[in-house]
Prior knowledge:
- The chain is globular and about 35 Å long.
- Helix content is 26%, strand content 42%.
- By secondary structure, the chain is an alpha+beta fold.
- The protein has one domain (2-93): Ribosomal protein S6/Translation elongation factor EF1B (Alpha-Beta Plaits).
- The N and C termini lie far apart (51 Å).
- A 4-stranded antiparallel sheet has the order 2-3-1-4, with helices on one face.
Amino acid sequence: MNFYEHTLITRQxxxxxxxxxxxxxxxxxxxxxxxxxxxxxxxxxxxxxxLIKKNKKGNFLHFKIKAKANTIRELEKxxxxxxxxxxxxxxxxxxxxxxxxxxxxxEEPVKKN
Length: 113
C-alpha cells in the first residue's frame, strides 16, 4: 500500500450539507476499495488563482490516504463525472505529515504594537 494526498475543490455555491455529502461519498469509495483514510481536513472556502468554470472561489477538501493504486483510479473515475467538483489532485508521497495543519485558524489574536 502507498501513501497519497488527495485534494478536492468543490463549487463555491454548494451548501455545507452538500460538502458533507461529498466528503462521505468519497470516504466511502476509499474504504470500499480497501483504502484507509489517515486524516481528513476541510480547508474551507478559499480564493482561486484564476476562474475555473466561472468560479472565483472553491471549497477545499483534503484527504491523507493509505491505499492501493486501483483505489485512486476508482476515486478519480467517480470525480470526473461529479458536477459539484471543479478540480481534484492525487499525489503519491513517501510519508505523510499527520501533525501539521496548514490551514488551521489561529485561536489567539495577533498583538499589534
